[in-house]
Amino acid sequence: MTSGAVAAARNILTRLHEVMASRSHAQSKLNTVAEVIGECLDSEVCSVYLLREGMLELFATRGLAQEAVHVTRMAVGEGLVGLIAEQIETLNLAEAAAHPDFSYRPETGEDRFHSFAGVPIVRRERAVGVLCVQHVEPRRYEEVEIEALQTVAMVLSELIVNAGLIDGEDAGTFGVGQTGPEQLRGLTLVKGLASGVAVFHQPRVTIEHIVAEDTEAERQRVILAFDKMREQIDRMAGQAEFGVGGEHEEVLETYRMFAYDEGWTRRINEAIDSGLTAEAAIERVQQRTRMRMRQIDDPLLADRMHDLEDLANRLLRIVSGQLGTAASMGLRNDAILIARNLGPAELLEYDRRRLKGVILEEGSLTSHVVIVARAMGVPVLGRVRGLRGVVREGDHLLLDADQATAMVRPSPGVVEAFEARFAKSRERQAAYAALRDVKPVSRDGQRVRVKINAGLRDDLANLSLTGADGIGLFRTEFQFLVSATLPQRERQTRLYRDVMDAAGDKPVVFRTVDIGGDKTLPYLRHDDGEGEENPAMGWRALRVALERDGLLKAQARALLEAGAGRTLHVMFPMVAEPWEFDAAKAVFDGQLAYLKQQKKLLPEVIRYGVMLEVPALAEQLDLLAPKISFLSIGTNDLTQFLFAADRSNPKLAERYDWLSPAILRFIRRVVRSLDGFNVDISVCGEMGGRPLEALALLGLGIRHMSITPASVGPVKELVGKVDLGEIGAAMEGWLTSPPPDLRVTMTEWAAARGIHTD
């Protein structure tokens, strides 16, 4: 907030404080408020719209026709005022009529006004009204004016709620009859099953006073609250119990960095200078953060903003003395935590013996809290819309993060079925655990290599838990995704060395950084600053690394130094043509020459490979094969490129089957094209982790798979029951003359031989 904004807001607040302290009735106060704001901002129009009976009603105005007061009404989402309330964001327009959502109301007499600015009046994260100003001359309002309006809107929210001028705060949440079972759908963030009672993470902090009596006293309250909050964060970071090392440590370090951010502290102090109490100042800055979050398309940057909001919530609870959270009060029963979003430190406060699962209204796969939850072994379901309108404190919940669903207030029959599935799941997990030391050998004596995909230090524990043959895909970009800045080479080296140490004599295939597409980094942007219409096929993976060769050089040297004295496996992602492999390997050769010159200890053997994700590469494998040691078919990207179907589009997610003859024939052609070359072929991706799809891959001649750790047991069990010669002959027949539904045909084939594929 600029010094001008602080002065303007303080001037308005001082006058509004006098208005609110007067004994006049609410309508009279609103009329005076409109006059004061219009006068202070030198604006010809100032209007206040409030939410009544689900509609935005003009309650007070300076400059518009007084006959329109309590007459002009519009729905949320209708016109500019309705748009502000719907999206809970600010509008600032030099020419209001040019906006596509502009709606002219003749009874207001607003036709002669051109400029328009409006801010939402927010109460408990809900827009309860809109404050707007207008001017005859076309102009955009200055930032100082917008900030003053936003601050005044906070004061208005207190006035109108206390006066009972708006719909009840619980309006639009629970319906009278919402007591029966309901199913929620969302996005799987961490897989798993859980049963427990709903516990709301955070009761809302009620701000009793908005306008400050003593600015210096409010500033001291904030200083003390910051000290206490930072002490809490430091203590929790030191008590994280995940063992030594792990990406979660980097997460918490970034989180601590936010807690000590001077810019955040300054903005809160400026809000206090404008005349707000400590609580209102924190809430004022927090509201602005939320508005910025709604404008951020970058999911990683949005996750960082969630961390900042988490800290703001913590600071607000401390300064207000309203410290009661579900964590501080303790969990008395097995619980499913309900929250709009969570920060990593807040999750760490919970008793892990009682915390069985988490359901979020927001959340994303790369968010900090998900990384920590995965390390804790807590299933998480995110992106559940209308969560707070369906779930109540104490409701029984069945969380099935595997299927991306949750059942609220389930019937006894549903509970019984879920418990049976849960018990069966535990039994099967126990059976799979018993296969840990069993090598996957088929009925006809052929050895199949089953490896795991990983990306975090914590994933390494799954090597010993599953008995996997190694790590067929280590996603190095995870370290980049959880970092606030580009990871330094020394830090990369330390991670890669730790991974190889943990793997022991088992191989680890390091995929060079695969960023771009849905894995964007806030600190690495396009040179032109523009977004991409089709990022999945754009500037990503090896294309980024070759253009930003400093990025690949640092990673190459880190991998070479970490692999000193061992066999190093390096894989390049999204190779479309052989020259791209040559260019990437040349970067490694250059770093290898440098390390030799420095007389550094080098890897004993370096095996280079590529991921086949781009179909074009299949047409040039004869040119590439002599140069590589292994090739991994990345079925996730390959499928979307082969079918021209965005895998993130829900309308297409289930449309193209991995058991389609098209994809199976393609993989068969790749396998056959490498006959006679000394190249190991593997499949990595979700396809290999599904038993029926894994059976098809075995029939195509695939003998190496890299899959999720949870899939290792089922695939091991599958391999032990299959005659690879038999499934190979059957697959050849099916692909020569495809049946109407290959999935059904294969399921029946497997069932007849006692092979479980569910």
Automatic annotation (TrEMBL):
InterPro entries: GAF, GAF-like_dom_sf, PEP-util_enz_mobile_dom, PEP-utilizing_PTS_enzyme, PEP_util_C, PEP_util_CS, Phosphohistidine_dom_sf, PTS_EI-like
Span of domain GAF: 25-170
Domain of life: Bacteria
Localisation: Cytoplasm
KW Lipid metabolism (keyword) present: no
Keywords recorded for this protein, A-Z: Cytoplasm, Kinase, Magnesium, Metal-binding, Phosphotransferase system, Sugar transport, Transferase, Transport
One protein family per Pfam: PEP-utilisers_N
Cofactor: Mg(2+)
EC id: 2.7.3.9
Main location: cytoplasm
Catalytic activity annotation: L-histidyl-[protein] + phosphoenolpyruvate = N(pros)-phospho-L-histidyl-[protein] + pyruvate
One of the record's GO molecular function terms: phosphoenolpyruvate-protein phosphotransferase activity
Cytoplasm recorded as keyword: yes
Similarity field: Belongs to the PEP-utilizing enzyme family.
Protein name as it appears in the record: phosphoenolpyruvate--protein phosphotransferase
Species this protein is from: Novosphingobium album
Lineage: Bacteria, Pseudomonadati, Pseudomonadota, Alphaproteobacteria, Sphingomonadales
